Amino acid sequence: MARRSVARSLLNNLLSMKLEPCSRLTASRSVTYMPRPGDGAPRPVTLIPGDGIGPLVTEAVEQVMTAMHAPVYFEKYDIHGDMKQVPQEVIDSIRKNKVCLKGGLKTPVGGGVSSLNVQLRKELDLYASLVHCSNLPGLPTRHDNVDIVVIRENTEGEYSGLEHEVVPGVVESLKVITKFCSERVAQYAFEYAYLNNRKKVTAVHKANIMKLADGLFLESCREVAMRYPGIKYNEIIVDNCCMQLVSKPEQFDVMVTPNLYGNLVANTAAGIAGGTGFMPGGNVGAGHAIFEQGASAGNVGNEKLLDQKKANPVALLFSSAMMLRHLQFPSFADRLETAVKRVISEGKYRTKDLGGQNTTQEVVDAIIAALD
Amino acid sequence: MASRIIRRVAGSGARCILASPAKSPSSSLPAPGRDFSSQTPITATLFPGDEIGPEIAESVKQVFKAAEIPIKWEEHYIGTEIDPRTQSCLTWESLESVRCNRVGLKGPMATPIGKGHRSLNLTMRKELNLYANVRPCYSLPGYKTRYDNVNLVTIRENTEGEYSGLEHQVVRGVVESLKIITRSASLRVAEYAFHYAKANGRERVSAIHKANIMQKTDGLFLECCREVAEKYPEIKYEEVIIDNCCMMLVKNPTLFDVLVMPNLYGDIISDLCAGLIRGLGLTPSCNIGEGGIALAEAVHGSAPDIAGKNMANPTALLLSSVMMLRHLNLNEKANQIQNAIIGTIADGKYRTADLGGSSSTTEFTNAICDNL
Asked: Searching chain A, which residue's CA lies closest to the CA of residue B181?
């Protein structure tokens, strides 16, 4: 009788025990990564602090990298958004190092200076821009189950910069879509999905109106989709897409879009997942990669944020973790991400966009303390 | 008295047939001070539309009769054959009727798929020169969505921009699509936006653009908005970049009041806003044309799966008819009906299936009539 009751109470204990993931696993995942001899040599990375909050957040990254003793060292170049063009030495440095980390570069409105961000992308042929928008524990949002990666064509489309005034008062702007660029960005999207175990790729378009242009984009996506039968593919019109994003974001996984729609969709997705201050991203091409805050909503932070030094460094820190993985240092990337996620979920140190009052430096110190 | 009004209306109708298509912006403001006494009925064109169209049109007629609104409906249906004068299934008589009556209400129309004719929406837009699409989005009290206190209006330029339909294939695999912005169209829609803001007691107009990248085209649009803004010093004017706007809309839609934008951005943003208040089934819309023509329409689809089952939600068409009444300066009646609709939904006793209730169309309509 006693034995049965002991057994039953043991059984009850077992059944009522909540299966929690082993905290040791989430804190420091044991990485079985066999490096090649010499992989530990420090790698140079071009660093562009940029404008606005850029210098503040890139400094945060530098501090964390030093604290982790990560095998990267930064070659800093000071350029600003109002320069006419990107200095040749910066381009040469990125060509040599292959990897760059960048704060935002402010693009002046209407002024006649073409955006430096766009120049960098075109010069280095960084044809795909990636933004990863996902819910973070500790980050209050109206939407749950958001885990969307937006891959956006980065070189053509509406951003060709080919405009002219036909007669006074009538202006034309050319949107150029080519099979070559559409195909390579679709290929990148499916390859990304395949390598990251993603299940679905959605192409965003407006081909019911722009039949030839977006029609060509869709054609290219469909051709690539046939080469990946294991990944589901569907298409959605861009206005319906935005409406679905705000009502049912869980239906989206990886999204591939032309240039302009990608900008809108990425910023919308970043907004529903918690804000542009938290979403990492980068631009990638055949030979080079530039990592930066994923969706910047077209601004580099306002004056007050700068004066009070309360900018949010999380997005750039996550991007630098992506950069570390790109450089094949997964263990450092994991440690960085875990520390940042721990600080966010604890919620003790919060910057202005989370409703808190902490400065960037305080958040960085908390993250460094959380590193193991 | 009645004969004088009929002569005036017929005269303006004759004038508009002979009028040239390119009008100066100043004549495009809706006719102010149309003061019809409650006895003289105003004729309005009604397109019930397809599938659920006739059912919800019946609801509108019933509510208008119960509220004793002096409107006489002139019903027109889409033909089954293509009218060569309009190159679509919409007959010339229907279009003439809208031109003469100056106001119309349109239900959902299923565009028949096929070649050799223009889409119905495109036909109406081009023939009636409907240059602005106005969509107010406000949270319905009592119907809880993720976003509360949404109260904004999107005004979208409807004739040019990216939807000019001018595309061509340069060589195989390279497509160009033209985006056209003209001074006259931008001034026209900006004028309407500020006029609407003033007439409806709105405090702020925001112009949405991407002029940092598309400097000449969106730059011209902004220039026109600024010019018009100077004429309305009591209304605050600001400019917001489109990606920032998307992000702010999903984080905090209460920041916006009236939004005015070119065609493509307007399409995307107005659908995004409809998503914020949970769908196109509740969103009213009104198209403004040259010479003060107003064609209110329900933007949702024709829902063939619930056609004939008395399950359709007439709210969108009813709220659109309210917009039509406001255009005619019948503001008291408009408020009466609007309050009745909001009250019925807030009560929660009678709600159609898409709002989570189980009432039929007729029950819902009767409840609104009772609430008048």
From this structure: A171
Task: Examine the pLDDT at A272 and tell me if it is beyond 90.
Answer: yes
Using a CB-CB cut-off of 8 Å, the residues of chain A touching B220 are: 169, 171
Alpha carbon distance B142, B146 (integer Å): 13
Contacts of A238 in chain B (CB under 8 A): 267-268
- E strand or H helix at B7: helix B2-18
Per-residue confidence at B84, pLDDT binned at 50, 70, 90? Answer: confident
- In degrees, to the nearest 5, what angle opens at C-alpha A144 toward C-alphas A138 and A147? 95
Quote the ipTM score: 0.83
Reference B29, options B228, B257, B317; nearest CA is B228
Tokens 């908005």 found at: B225
Q: How far apart are CA B233 and CA B221, in angstroms?
A: 19
Quick check: B294 pLDDT over 50? Answer: yes
A165 CB near a chain B CB, below 8 Å?
yes
In chain B, residues with a C-beta closer than 8 Å to the C-beta of A114 are 215
Rounded distance, CA A186 to CA A255, Å?
Answer: 10
For residue A105, give both structure tokens: 């570069």
Contact check, Cβ <8 Å, B162/A110: no
Mean pLDDT over residues B121-146, rounded?
A: 85
CB–CB of B88/B118 below 8 Å?
yes
pLDDT mean over B97-126: 77
Residue of A nearest to B244 (CA): A297
pLDDT at B112 over 80: no
CB contact under 8 A, B272 and A107: no
What residues in A contact B251, CB-CB < 8 Å? 271, 275
Task: Say if B274 is an interface residue toward chain A (CB within 8 Å).
Answer: yes
> Do the Cβ atoms of A221 and A151 come closer than 8 Å?
no
CB contact under 8 A, B275 and A245: yes
Exposure of B85 in the CB half-sphere (CA atoms within 13 A): 9
| Helix, coil or strand: residue B176 | strand
Tokens of A302: 């306002």
- Paired tokens of A257: 């879009």
Q: Can you say whether residue A157 is alpha, beta or left, with left for phi > 0 and alpha for psi between -120 and 50 degrees?
A: left
pLDDT score of A56 more than 70 = yes
Q: Which two tokens stand for residue A174?
A: 């050319």
Q: Which tens digit of pLDDT belongs to each residue from B201-241?
A: 999 999 999 988 888 999 999 999 999 999 999 999 999 99
Whole-model pTM: value is 0.85
- A241 close to A204: Cβ distance less than 8 angstroms: yes
pLDDT at B113: 58
Q: If you search the block for the tokens 């390859």, which residue do you land on? A: A191
Task: Report the pLDDT value the prediction gives residue A337, as an integer from 0 to 100.
Answer: 94
Task: Give the number of other CB atoms < 10 A from CB of residue B282.
Answer: 25
**Residue B278 with chain A: CB contacts under 8 Å:** 247
**Nearest residue of chain A to residue B275 (CA atoms):** A243
DSSP state of B88: B
Most confident of B91-105, B139-153, B250-264: B250-264
Of residues B304 and B113, the one with the higher pLDDT is: B304
Between CA B132 and CA B293 the distance in angstroms is 11
**A252 has a chain B CB within 8 A of its CB:** no
